[in-house]
Amino acid sequence: MGQAFDPQVLLSEALMANLATLGDEGPRNAPAWFLWEGGAIWMPASGSNSSVRRLQADPRCAVEVTRFDNEAGILLHLGLRGRASIQVMDGARFRRLLSKYLGPEEARWNPWFIRNVAAIDDPDGRMIKLRPQTIFTNNVSYARSGPQLAWPPED
């Protein structure tokens, strides 16, 4: 088994989260950008999104974030578990989330992407909010290289 690490290491990075939900059709998994803010993870969605529909029926979910760098031998895993809620889109929060992935200068954001994929002012916009009941971290960076090259580097 690996070692625990500070979850902020991954929560502050522009990584993909995987949202796991339950529905009548069984378990489902969806990749998502995310923002960690106020003790909760926030993921963009729309009111018609299948993850939103499943969470409205059963709010239990899990979110996984992983940093894997094969060359450097880094493998960090973060798991968040709990009950999600669906929130009306908060434009300021969504802009902070987009800044994490697209950079701080909105003028440099791809207009096509903002218009067609990440419409900030979409009236159907929602955010999935998970204030985790449990947080699990596992650093198994030594899996490839052995403990002498494990992350974080030893002094």
UniProtKB/TrEMBL annotation:
Pyridoxamine 5'-phosphate oxidase N-terminal domain residues are 10-137
Spell out the protein name for this chain: Pyridoxamine 5'-phosphate oxidase
According to its UniProt entry, this protein's organism is Paracoccus seriniphilus
Instruction: Show the SUPFAM superfamilies listed in the entry.
Output: FMN-binding split barrel (SSF50475)
Q: Which domain of life is it from?
A: Bacteria
> Sorted alphabetically, which InterPro entries does this protein's record hold?
Pyridox_Oxase_N, Split_barrel_FMN-bd
Q: Which Pfam families match?
A: PNPOx_N
